[in-house]
Amino acid sequence: MSNIQLCYNIERQDFSKAGEASSNIKKALRQLGINSGTIRRVAVATYEAEMNIIIHSEGGIIGVTVDVDKIRIDAKDTGPGIEDIDMAMKEGYSTATPEIRELGFGAGMGLPNMKRYADEFKIESSVGNPTIITIVIYL
Amino acid sequence: MLVKELIEALNLELIAGEEGTENKITGVYISDLLSWVMAKLQAGNVWITIQTHVNVVAVALLGEASCMIIPEGADIDENTIAKANEEKIPLLRSQLTAYELALKIKEVSKI
């Protein structure tokens, strides 16, 4: 069986469409008959990745690859990069503005939530470069 | 208990998403921090939040909330109402506080 790939463009600061890519991914996985627990883990990971791209980056893409034994999520933006990844991975740490926080975002839970729901989690980033996140969830 | 039964029991205002009122209620979750909600809300939970911008609908949808209740009669954005209708997620409103709502839901649903 060949794998199935989904790809979504995420615009920076586009809060009107926030969550749309994750919702579409979720619907597609349901149609593929993936079990609900796995779908939930993918939904949380893709939602957090989507929100991070909207809030913090200059825009990016989220790709989902469904294989026979795993689902892989690739989130890649076009910068500006993360200065201190260790800090960014800490629960409660966020660089979001007060305006963003008033909307209920910027809780500093995005990256920790992604890692929590992943079987494999990798983040690559540095100032002036893209942030690339790879998440694998086993089926 | 179904959402439509809860609406009747608590005299909730049905703002949007009437098509989802047959959803079954499994519990209650209260938070305004969307990442917390994404991580902790269980499928079928009633989600009580004072956040009323359009993004709450995506969170409710992804977390599989049975419905959303906006407490204390807060104003709700027009595009949030449109999105809740589109996604068939019941968007309800009450004059009660989140705490009072939770107590009443416990009383009428026994969950």
Automatic annotation (TrEMBL), chain A:
The keyword Acyltransferase does not apply. It holds the Pfam family HATPase_c_2. The lineage of its organism: Bacteria, Bacillati, Bacillota, Clostridia, Peptostreptococcales. SUPFAM superfamilies: ATPase domain of HSP90 chaperone/DNA topoisomerase II/histidine kinase. Residues 20-132 form the Histidine kinase/HSP90-like ATPase domain. It comes from Alkaliphilus peptidifermentans DSM 18978. This is Anti-sigma regulatory factor (Ser/Thr protein kinase). InterPro entries: HATPase_C_sf, HATPase_dom. One of its GO terms (molecular function) is kinase activity. Keywords: Kinase, Transferase. The keyword Transcription does not apply.
From TrEMBL, chain B:
SUPFAM superfamilies: HprK N-terminal domain-like (SSF75138). Residues 5-107 form the DRTGG domain. InterPro entries: DRTGG (IPR010766), Ser_kin/Pase_Hpr-like_N_sf (IPR028979). It comes from the Bacteria. Gene3D superfamilies: HprK N-terminal domain-like (3.40.1390.20). This is DRTGG domain-containing protein. It comes from Alkaliphilus peptidifermentans DSM 18978.
